[in-house]
Amino acid sequence: MPSWPVNQWYVAAYSEEIGDGLLGRTICGEPLVFYRTGEGEVVALADRCVHRRYPLSLSHLKDDQIVCGYHGFTYDKTGACVAAPAQKRIPRTARVPAWTVREQDSLVWVWIGDQELADEALIPRAPWLDSPNYTVVRGMEPLKARYSLLVDNLMDLSHETYLHGGYIGTPEVAETPITTEVDEDANVVYVSRHMDDAECPPFYSKSTGIDGRITRWQDVEYHAPCLYLLHSRIAPAGVLPPQEGPDDKAFHVEVTYGITPSTEHETLDFWMVSRDFALDDEEVTEFLATNNHTVVMQDVVALDLLEKVVEGEKENYQELSINIDTGALAARRILTKLVAQGEERTAAAKAVTAP
Ligand code: FES
Ligand SMILES: [Fe+2]
Question: Whose CA is nearest to atom 3 of ligand 1?
Fold first, then answer.
């Protein structure tokens, strides 16, 4: 049984990554090839030719069809083989699986599990990613670590003080208690940390121009399994949101992560930083892109290291958890539940379709 939940939507790519060519990406253990048709539709097929298994992502596209780079089997967007060399009759079994994909909020989502169960109403939203009221910087780092380590990392922001000191971490992040709420039905974990009078880390002082102390809010929403939202509010100390009307004395940053399992020991770490200020300021854009990339790489180094430790440890090793881990523990509980539910749904769907 895989460690990730099936019958779920996962972020496979940014919309802009799928253009003229073929993109190969392994999502939840499934090697997939993505491309965009002339009409703009995104297609996802299994990345393995039925003939001798050549990767279709290393082949080429012609008229919305993939021509295998080894012997030329040609596949249409449904995965059906429509041409093979030196013969007219194509075996009916010559087809690769096609996967359900949807684009929303500038992200390409793929449904992993039984394709007939895909329900696009279940895709969580991050509307600022393609809103004209925000400027977004983004990137993707492959991790050599299991996805649950990235979930742990993002649910506990107290690590900012230690791992990201000098960038986004200040003493207050580790010192301020958190509140945690769980919506069991929606599979969402909320973790909040409101700092009333905090040091302004360079990440925010340089981008907002605030000098002096700040009120800094971090409101996390983790939509298990794949989408993580950190609503960050930064304002000069003492400036709270008004009772009514827009909160326009504050700066807002939406930090978004797509946490996508690739294999049991690898994860795709999609990171995005959206801001509602200095929208056209290239210097701020460049600063946030570079700075956040550095922060992400600090996590990548730590998590790749942790994966080796976890892989090497004896079974039944007992971690010690404290208050700061409440959000991460809630996330783990939900993921365990979703893994079991996914397997049940798959089993139920198979029972219905069995002859
Ligand atoms: S492996 Fe693809 S055509 Fe032979
Ligand atoms: Fe981090």
Answer: 71
